[in-house]
């Protein structure tokens, strides 16, 4: 036999990692308990659930099934621990977190073996990706614990955090959740997924080992219906951080609506993998392997839709089939295995069901010729061609090793096809033309964009979704804000104490005598005749209409609503908006989406111009505030001047809220770019009719959003007076649309609207709850005040980065370099 022949017939021999240390650890710890207050507790129910090895289908062990009594105990432990941990200096927390990272590394082999046994993923992945990346998160966030005081001086921890994670990256998802929470001084109760608890339990043991104060981390294994739901509904939990499916995310949004619990949701995806004809096809093939066959395709950001430029499609598909024929499936503990087992029989059935549906829908299915192992839950890598974009397999997250491919002709078509999904988690772009790749990246609606790479993650770089892939980010500095809230929020600021005390003898606003600087504030309403007689002229009736597409539009209802001053006198009328007006406004907003791609310089100029035009009418606007609120004139002037200053602030921020360049451990850079969210609905507060309006509109448009605004229901005239200011300030028509009328009726229509991407609501607590409930239709991002008024005059409460963060979503663009 020649060397060449030997070489060609060479087979991989098995190279198994020993299961024994993992199995021994399991035996030593049976029966597993719940981890509460750094101790192992028996579950209140006395029940245990089976934990299986998906590669054999056999039971590995049993873990405790917690119920709501255990949740109560864990939350109480976390609450008590928070009293101290929340005040523990950052350096002390950093030391604990550093110790956690070190201990994950010390136990890394055992953790990798346990993860592969429990989840079915190849040891190559657990050893080289899951476990090292989990350690990296604790190192990285130990740094933020250390820096919190200097870098986030105006923030405090949220409190007790409930964390719920999926089974696809058990320890890694735990690290993504626990590391930032502890860094910011929170305590946690974490629920692992039902099928994959073992590494979380090993992690609990590490908490004991390093001597973390009791109650800071609590881990409850069990069923979603027992543990998950109780955690979500628990009144003493201040935040829920969830990673999992969009359906469950939706139910959690509903369950927490109106409760004031902070919420972050990392949900599903159907991410595009876009290949242009100038891409290096051999790299592309390896990229596809990592995109969809990594972790058996059970990856939220899996590149599950292959979009190929038409002229190279056949060539790429042919190469892919050859590569698929050589993929190795089998024992996850075998170091030479590429594809392991699917996590559970249920998941396997679901994949098979969707694949069958794909065939029924007329797509062409291809699988390699080799057979999967006969025991355990395995599914072969699968490729669909001849897929049409509207079919189930092109739209639904399969969460398995199944790739669907479609073709496009032009870059514009590629973008359109890529964005043709309800999700927006990730995208990957392959081209050797950097100009093309960087032109396409900002057009993709996705939280992560990988250029000539895929499925890269690092603690330094935020991860999270657009659209129905959820909201909030994990990783990076942006991930910290999910675990803090402004310090002022605990300061009691009852409504009465705000600077809106009403004048004891209010001006009736109808043209009388109040003097400012020796000048009648209303002299423009008086007309002198030649014989010296001065008559008070009635003002010319001005009934503002809606402001839609840059023009005044009659209300669809044909009705007006009366506006009263605090004494009950009618001071004007505005249009009575309805569903149709809102729809028109949303449509006009969409038509103005070019606003986001204009230059930041241009947006800043327009904000300055709005400020300038407002200042020339300062007295008129002040009088309007007096008229609507009965507040003293000087107070009203202060409101107008603060509004002008606020416009200046956001004009300033427009070209300074720029994002960051991350340097993860690779050759390359990650551009973290805050992007506009899109069409936003804004419901303004009743306090401060002008300043409330400006404080919300200015940051949102500064960041490139297009708006539908409902002004203060009680005092809408300050906003409607702005029509002319906006029209004469070069603001393109449709960027700000204003619909007056009943606050909650109109807000409900906006919250239900699927073409609205985010909603802010500053109103009564019940309204806030309704908005959060309604937002689940398209999982729009919401920001509500739970009925607590802000002091809008205060620059800490009324303006700043909080507003800019709520106006943007961060996209991380990964750009590796080197040949
Ligand atoms: P899942 O939604 O079924 O479960 C996730 C977790 O929520 C589990 O711990 C489960 O027990 C718990 N849970 C289920 N119902 C609950 C309820 N009503 N109340 C409280 N908790 C409940 O998802 P899964 O099958 O475990 O994971 C797969 C999904 O997760 C996929 O859709 C995937 O895209 C998504 N995922 C997203 C990310 C991300 O970062 N965006 C990462 C990994 C996975
Ligand atoms: Mn398992």
Topology:
Blueprint: H1 3-9, H2 20-29, E1 34-36, E2 39-41, E3 48-53, E4 58-64, H3 68-85, H4 90-106, H5 108-119, H6 123-151, E5 155-157, E6 160-164, H7 170-183, E7 187-191, H8 198-210, E8 217-219, H9 224-233, E9 239-243, H10 246-256, E10 262-266, E11 271-275, H11 281-293, E12 303-309, H12 310-325, H13 345-360, E13 364-366, E14 382-385, H14 392-395, E15 402-408, H15 411-418, E16 426-430, H16 434-440, E17 448-451, E18 470-471, E19 484-486, E20 515-516, E21 519-520, E22 526-528, E23 534-536, E24 546-548, E25 551-553, E26 560-564, E27 570-575, H17 579-591, H18 600-615, H19 618-629, H20 633-654, E28 660-662, E29 668-676, E30 679-683, H21 691-702, E31 706-710, H22 717-720, H23 722-727, E32 736-738, H24 743-752, E33 758-761, H25 765-774, E34 781-784, H26 795-798, H27 801-806, E35 808-816
Parallel strand pairs: 6-7, 6-9, 7-8, 9-10, 11-12, 11-16, 12-15, 14-15, 16-17, 17-35, 30-31, 30-33, 31-32, 33-34
Antiparallel strand pairs: 1-2, 3-4, 5-19, 10-18, 13-14, 20-21, 22-23, 24-25, 26-27, 28-29, 29-35
Helix pairs in contact: 3-9, 4-6, 4-8, 5-6, 6-7, 11-12, 18-20, 19-20, 20-21, 24-25
The structure holds nicotinamide-adenine-dinucleotide and manganese (II) ion.
Manganese (II) ion (MN) binds next to strand 3.
């Amino acid at each position: 036999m020649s060397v060449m022949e030997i070489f060609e017939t060479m087979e991989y021999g098995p190279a198994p990692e020993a299961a024994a240390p993992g199995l021994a650890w399991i035996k030593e710890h049976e029966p597993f308990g719940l981890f509460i207050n750094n101790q192992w507790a028996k579950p209140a129910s006395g029940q245990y659930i089976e934990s299986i090895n998906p590669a054999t289908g056999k039971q590995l062990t049993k873990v405790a099934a917690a119920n709501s009594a255990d949740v109560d105990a864990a939350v109480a432990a976390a609450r008590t621990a928070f009293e101290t941990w929340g005040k523990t200096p950052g350096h002390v927390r950093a030391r604990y977190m550093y110790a956690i990272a070190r201990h994950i590394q010390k136990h890394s082999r055992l953790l990798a073996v346990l993860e592969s046994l429990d989840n079915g993923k190849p040891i190559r992945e657990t050893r080289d990706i899951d476990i090292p990346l989990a350690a990296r998160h604790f190192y990285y966030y130990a740094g933020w614990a250390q820096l919190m005081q200097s870098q986030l001086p105006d923030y405090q921890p949220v409190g007790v955090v409930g964390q719920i994670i999926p089974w696809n990256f058990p320890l890694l998802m735990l690290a993504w959740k626990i590391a930032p929470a502890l860094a910011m001084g929170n305590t946690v109760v974490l629920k692992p997924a039902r099928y994959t608890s073992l590494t979380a339990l090993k992690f609990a043991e590490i908490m004991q080992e390093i001597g973390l104060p009791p109650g800071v981390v609590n881990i409850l294994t069990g069923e979603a219906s027992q543990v998950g739901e109780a955690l979500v509904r628990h009144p003493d939990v201040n935040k829920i951080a969830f990673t999992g499916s969009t359906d469950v995310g939706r139910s959690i949004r509903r369950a927490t609506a109106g409760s004031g619990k902070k919420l972050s949701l990392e949900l599903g995806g159907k991410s595009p993998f876009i290949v242009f004809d100038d891409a290096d096809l051999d790299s592309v093939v390896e990229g596809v392997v990592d995109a969809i066959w990594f972790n058996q395709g059970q990856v939220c950001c899996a590149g599950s839709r292959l979009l190929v430029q038409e002229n190279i499609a056949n060539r790429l598909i042919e190469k892919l089939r050859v590569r698929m024929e050589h993929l190795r499936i089998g024992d996850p503990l075998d170091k030479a295995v590429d594809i392991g087992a699917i996590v559970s029989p249920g998941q396997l059935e679901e994949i098979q069901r969707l694949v069958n549906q794909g065939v029924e829908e007329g797509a062409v299915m291809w699988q390699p010729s080799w057979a999967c192992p006969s025991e355990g839950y395995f599914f072969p890598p699968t490729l669909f061609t001849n897929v049409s974009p509207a079919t189930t397999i092109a739209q639904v997250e399969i969460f398995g090793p199944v790739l669907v491919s479609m073709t496009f002709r032009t870059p514009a078509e590629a973008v359109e096809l890529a964005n043709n999904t309800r999700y927006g988690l990730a995208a990957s772009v392959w081209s050797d033309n950097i100009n093309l790749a960087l032109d396409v990246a900002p057009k993709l609606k996705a939280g992560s964009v990988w250029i000539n790479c895929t499925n890269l993650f690092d603690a330094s770089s935020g991860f999270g979704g657009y659209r129905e892939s959820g909201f909030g980010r994990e990783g990076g500095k942006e991930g910290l804000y999910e675990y803090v809230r402004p310090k002022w929020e605990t300061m009691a600021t009852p409504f009465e104490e705000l600077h809106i005390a009403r004048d004891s003898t209010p001006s009736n606003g109808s043209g009388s005598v109040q003097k400012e600087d020796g000048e009648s504030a209303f002299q423009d309403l008086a007309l002198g005749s030649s014989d010296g007689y001065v008559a008070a002229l009635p003002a010319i009736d001005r009934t503002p209409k809606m402001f839609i597409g840059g023009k005044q539009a009659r209300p669809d209802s044909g009705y007006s609503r009366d506006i009263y001053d605090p004494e009950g006198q009618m001071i004007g009328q505005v249009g009575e908006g309805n569903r149709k007006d809102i729809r028109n406004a949303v449509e006009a907003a969409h038509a103005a989406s070019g606003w986001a791609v204009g230059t930041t310089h241009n947006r800043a100029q327009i904000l300055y111009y709005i400020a300038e035009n407002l200042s020339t009418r300062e007295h008129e606007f002040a009088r309007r505030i007096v008229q609507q609120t009965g507040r003293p004139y000087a107070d009203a002037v202060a409101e107008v001047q603060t509004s002008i200053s606020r416009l200046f602030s956001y004009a300033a921020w427009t070209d300074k809220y720029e994002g960051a360049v991350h340097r993860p451990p690779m050759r390359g850079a990650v551009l973290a770019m805050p992007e506009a969210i899109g069409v936003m609905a804004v419901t303004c507060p009743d306090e401060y009719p002008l300043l409330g309006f400006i404080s919300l509109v200015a940051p949102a448009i500064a960041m490139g959003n297009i708006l539908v605004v409902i002004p203060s229901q009680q005092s809408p005239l300050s906003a409607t007076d702005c029509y002319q200011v906006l029209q004469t300030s070069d603001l393109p028509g449709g960027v700000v649309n204003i619909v007056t009328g009943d606050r909650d009726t109109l807000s409900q229509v906006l919250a239900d609207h699927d073409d609205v991407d985010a909603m802010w609501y500053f109103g009564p607590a019940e309204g806030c709850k309704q908005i959060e409930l309604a937002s689940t239709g398209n999982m729009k991002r919401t920001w509500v005040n739970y009925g607590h008024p802000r002091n809008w005059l205060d620059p800490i409460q009324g303006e700043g980065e909080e507003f800019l963060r709520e106006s943007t979503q961060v996209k991380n663009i990964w750009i590796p370099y080197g040949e």
